[in-house]
Amino acid sequence: MQKSVYLRHIKNQKTHWWFHGRRNLIFSLIKRFVYKKKKLRILDFGCGSGTNIKALLNFGEVHAYEKDKNTNQYLLSKYKNIKKVKILKKIKQNYLYDCIVLADVLEHIKDDKKILITLRKKLKKEGIILLTVPAYNFLFSKKDEVLKHFRRYEYSIFKKLLMKDFKVLKISFFNTILFLPIAIITVFFKFLKFDYINEVEETPNVFINKILYLILRLETLLLKYIDFPFGMSIILVGEKKNL
């Protein structure tokens, strides 16, 4: 992770409509598919600047793993006095989790199939994996390059990738209502080879930020009842298969 990226995330993760909205969606799905009124062991794999850690703490103990050394040091300092949070420098060998979260992480990993096999082994029986990934490879742009993505995902390929090791409980696109304007802007800047990451990852003015957040909030409510047929991202909840 580039230093400028994690510093920007630290600055914007609390307020930016995207981080806030995705955090609520993850919280909602863990509550629906995982939480059974008992404390969970959760692994936040590839946690970045820790945008989801506080939300995950509502469900139990959180282990957070981030490969980037600078970000890891920031997290160690930030959470050193919180007993229910453990910042890992490496994944513990003999520790199993109720839930593993990968929030926009898989696209950063070259061998995505291998890491999913590894993480499956770190889940308890009937443990849950929850992933979000960016959708549609035709939208791969300069922003993806700056963020060091290897790919964006097609729905069918992503689902097939998970189905061997996990029973898919929920899969849907999200960030659907805003898909058309964001896709048009992305394709336009892709054609111009323009680096626009600073503009989209800085928190917009209060009014616009609130409107965009409420749109994602609405989608989170609707996802209790429907699956969206398209969107800028995909979310999947899978249960460990006992092979």
**Fraction of residues in helix:** 40-55%
Share in β-strands: 15-25%
Low-confidence stretches: none
Radius of gyration: 17 Å
Basic shape: globular
Known CATH architecture: 3-Layer(aba) Sandwich
What's the number of helices? 10
CATH topology: Rossmann fold
Give a verbal description of the structure.
- The protein has 243 residues and is an alpha/beta fold.
- The protein has a single domain (3-240), classed as Vaccinia Virus protein VP39 (Rossmann fold).
- It has helices spanning 3-12, 17-33, 53-56, 69-78, 112-120, 142-146, 155-163, 179-192, 197-201, 206-222, and strands spanning 40-45, 60-65, 85-88, 97-103, 123-134, 166-174, 233-240.
- A seven-stranded mixed β-sheet has the order 3-2-1-4-5-7-6, with helices on both faces.
What does this entry show, briefly?
The protein is α/β, with parallel strands linked by helices and 243 residues long.
Features:
single chain, alpha/beta, seven-stranded mixed beta sheet
Question: Which helices and strands appear, and what pairs or packs with what?
Answer:
Blueprint lengths: L2 H10 L4 H17 L6 E6 L7 H4 L3 E6 L3 H10 L6 E4 L8 E7 L8 H9 L2 E12 L7 H5 L8 H9 L2 E9 L4 H14 L4 H5 L4 H17 L10 E8 L3
Parallel strand pairs: 1-2, 1-4, 2-3, 4-5
Antiparallel strand pairs: 5-7, 6-7
Helix pairs in contact: 2-10
